[in-house]
Design brief:
The protein has 229 residues and is α/β, with parallel strands linked by helices. It folds into 2 domains: 8-19 and 91-228, HAD superfamily/HAD-like (Rossmann fold, 3-Layer(aba) Sandwich); 21-89, DNA polymerase, domain 1 (Orthogonal Bundle), CATH 1.10.150. Helix content is 45%, strand content 10%. The chain has helices spanning 21-34, 41-46, 52-63, 69-89, 97-106, 119-133, 155-164, 178-186, 217-221, and strands spanning 8-11, 110-114, 140-142, 171-175, 190-193, 206-208. The protein has a 6-stranded parallel sheet, sandwiched between helices. Strand 4, helix 8 and strand 5 (190-193) form a beta-alpha-beta unit. The chain starts with 7 loop residues before the first strand and ends in an 8-residue tail after the last helix.
Length: 229
């Protein structure tokens, strides 16, 4: 098989580039406390990469409460408001993430952000990143309220590939969850995942790492593609 190439890196946001999963966990734990319950660490870990409705369903089942559709909508609005307030203060890079992104930009690789988070929150985060990096970090951003289906469906990554005008074989996805990894693989990309509290099955095209520290464009370019595994 011919050697693989790398033209773009497609990054997930929460838990991958940024330690913002903790904000969602904090909000969900506070929501559960408001119901008079306590959500388990295992349940919170299983919400990684899951959309808000799915995450709240996990928490409801873990705590053992039922909510009407109207109450569920109110709960979702409360969680979004709480996370917005937390993100407005600051966001923190995951170890090695800032260095990886800046190396990708410096080397001329194209970059995209592909996240389940909705556009208003993403723009808030992008404001922090632009101020920190002094540049526009992503050529393309795809948000959870702009796609026909959410991860693990490949639609978000396929939309990013179309916007970049690139083939999946020339791109690497960087993720932190089983849900996101499945989406990247289904789109045909190589995937590097740094999971947090999740066990991922061995899958062609999927590389599991302990951290993004020390990861650079050369490492990403050498990742095996499913077609050559």
């Amino acid at each position: 098989m011919p050697p693989t190439t790398l033209q773009a890196v497609l990054f997930d946001m929460d838990g991958t580039l940024l330690a913002t999963e903790q904000y969602w966990d904090e909000a969900l734990a506070e929501l559960a406390a408001g119901w008079g319950g306590t959500v388990s660490a295992a349940a919170l870990a299983s919400t990684a990469g899951v959309d808000l409705d799915g995450a709240m369903d996990i928490v409801r089942r873990d705590v053992g409460v039922q909510r009407t559709p109207a109450q569920a909508r109110d709960d979702a609005e409360w969680v979004i408001g709480r996370v917005t307030a937390l993100m407005a203060r600051s966001v923190t890079w995951q170890p090695g993430a800032r260095e990886l992104l800046t190396e990708c930009l410096a080397s001329g690789l194209r970059t995209a952000l592909v996240t389940t988070t909705y556009r208003p929150l993403v723009e808030l985060v992008l404001g922090h990143l632009r101020a920190d990096l002094g540049t526009e970090p992503f050529e393309v951003t795809v948000c959870g309220d702009e796609v026909p289906a959410l991860k693990p469906d490949p639609a978000p990554y396929l939309q990013a590939l179309a916007a970049l005008g690139l083939d999946a074989a020339d791109c690497v996805v960087v993720e932190d969850s089983h849900t996101g990894s499945r989406a990247g693989l289904a789109a045909g990309c190589r995937v590097l995942v740094v999971p947090h509290g999740q066990q991922l099955p061995s899958t062609p095209g999927l590389t599991v790492g302990d951290s993004l520290v020390g990861v650079g464009p050369g490492y990403l370019a050498a990742l095996p593609h499913p077609a050559v595994v």
